[in-house]
Amino acid sequence: MKTVQPIRSYSKIEELKTELLRNSYRDYFLFVFGLNSGLRISDILPLKVKDVKNKHFLIAKETKTGKDRRIPMLPNLKIEIEKYIAGMKPEDYLFRSLRTRKPITRIQAYRILKSAAEKVGLEEIGTHTMRKTFGYHFYQQQKDVAMLQKIFNHSSPSITLRYIGIDEDMINEAFMKFGGL
Fold first, then answer.
1. pTM above 0.90?
2. Model confidence over 12-48: pLDDT tens digits?
3. What are the boundaries of each domain within the chain?
4. How far apart are CA 72 and CA 57, in angstroms?
5. Closest CA to 159 of 126, 141, 132
6. Most buried by CB count within 10 Å: which residue of 21, 59, 101, 131?
């Protein structure tokens, strides 16, 4: 299995959003939703309009852990949700396949992100990139690894730091400071 990285650059995030929007509003919204919820793709794809409409918190049952998560809906995400779901029915899937009317698959979500990422020059991208990008920027703003560990339900801070690529950044920075012999 290939390791994916968070997108560290805000400008690359914006480039990717633009590229996804060129493809479809659904694809753009999938990325925005992933970046602003910190959820795994398997927890995002089955969501319906009724799960997010007029909500202050999203209640999601994590597929991996079986635990319920209560996630605050960020103001910018609420705005995007309202625009996106306008005209949709409560039982409609948010990320509906045009062909089957069911949610798109993880594989299709991966293809969507991978294709757009290649066009903007990003590598090491997958569906988990959204969750890792959320975590990376949350940590950069809050500097609270314990809180992020709890959000991600990780067993230790070191796992969380490795997961979001912070330990890799610190190692690279230390190498550069060392400079060689």
1. yes
2. 999 999 999 999 999 999 999 999 999 999 999 999 9
3. 10-178
4. 4
5. 132
6. 131
